[in-house]
Amino acid sequence: MKAYQVTPGEGLAGLKAVERAARAPAAGEVVVGVRAVSLNYRDTIIPKFNYAGEAKPLVPCSDGAGEVLAVGSAVKRFKKGDRVAGIFFQGWLDGPIGPAETTAALGGGVDGMLAQQVHLDENGLVAVPHSYTYAEAACLPCAAVTAWNALFVEGGIRPGDTVLLQGTGGVSIWALQLAKAAGMRVILTSSSDDKLKRVRDLGADDTINYKATPEWQNEALKLTGGRGVDLVLEVGGADTLKRSVMATRYGGTVAVIGGVSGFAGPFELMPLLMGAKTMKGIYVGSRKMFEDLNRFVTAQKIKPVVDRAFPFEQARAAYDRLEAARHFGKVVIEVPA
Ligand SMILES: NC(=O)c1ccc[n+]([C@@H]2O[C@H](COP(=O)([O-])OP(=O)(O)OC[C@H]3O[C@@H](n4cnc5c(N)ncnc54)[C@H](OP(=O)(O)O)[C@@H]3O)[C@@H](O)[C@H]2O)c1
Predict the structure, then answer these.
(1) In a domain, 61, yes or no
(2) Which domain holds residue 277?
(3) Tens of pLDDT along 5-41?
(4) Cβ(5) to ligand 1 under 6 A?
(5) Which of 35, 105, 113, 203 has the smallest C-beta neighbourhood within 10 Å, fewest atoms?
(6) Is 195 in the pocket of ligand 1 (CB under 6 A)?
(7) Cα–Cα–Cα angle for 316, 304, 166, nearest 5°?
(8) What is the DSSP string of 138-178?
(9) Is 304 in the pocket of ligand 1 (CB under 6 A)?
(10) In this predicted model, what pLDDT tens digit does every residue of 196-211 receive, in sequence order?
(11) Cβ distance 86 to 62 under 8 Å?
(12) 127 and 212 share a domain?
């Protein structure tokens, strides 16, 4: 069966198609015939740096969906033909996060989903919404679960609250759709006026071009009558963290998710402590959060925004599109049966 592999440290130049032997499932294992994979920003980082701490080649990508081809002995949760997706952290099923829960991350600590067949423990899978295509279901595991966790679990946001989102990538577009369906006001920033028009069509209440308005936190304060937003989903990192804290109301929360402009940099304490604000790290989420998300998107009839689906042979072009931030929403790679 066909798969891709990357070697941490080699960059995307090291992305290569390989043949791997198919095998029967071990006890407790499910063999998934992957039909679609979606890319996350993380998938562009792992090949460049030694993100997972080990330089051994691995199958990339956390997010994939497909059909159960076979189950090992003692498997109870799934049967042949079921439609499933892998969960990001294979060991985080429910309850609080901890070191044991985050050890096995698909496409990071362990082989991921960019392959025709993957073997996962039955506990490391969820059933996907019936109305979703495989391409749509492949958009759920990382970006959507992260947005869900940041908004409704750690963010503790309520209908009527104002949330600020950054950019038009996977996490932010999912967060826009979830937040609007849950009755929130959304302010969203982007580098592109065309993309800002598209987010207004998706329901964003107010938009700011962060290139044209580099001090966008002042605009966010103006838009909230000087009060500040209740919650920021911080994906910008080095260039945005300080501004996010400044844009947040007294007692509000900055959910620290990513660093598309860099993961390190100086930090000013005063705007945080003088406003008694909270900064909360977010690390994707548990299987329980994924299942809650699936119920919500089914009830609310929310479908992911698929930017573009690439054929398996053009996986590199899909990576390039994401890395250049030409996308809007999720970039998908289709996997042949
Ligand atoms: N902690 C976690 O569990 C977790 C989970 C998922 C993702 N992440 C992290 O979250 C970040 C986003 O991930 P993703 O997969 O959604 O990324 P993505 O799909 O690649 O989207 C990135 C988007 O960020 C926007 N952007 C770039 N520079 C920016 C800046 N200076 N200020 C504001 N926006 C900026 C761009 O949007 P425009 O083109 O509209 O400007 C770009 O399209 C990454 O750092 C990723 O590692 C973390």
Answers:
(1) yes
(2) 155-281
(3) 999 889 999 999 999 999 999 999 999 999 999 999 9
(4) no
(5) 203
(6) yes
(7) 80
(8) TTIIIIIHHHHIIIIISS---TT-EEEEESSSHHHHHHHHH
(9) no
(10) 999 999 999 999 999 9
(11) yes
(12) no
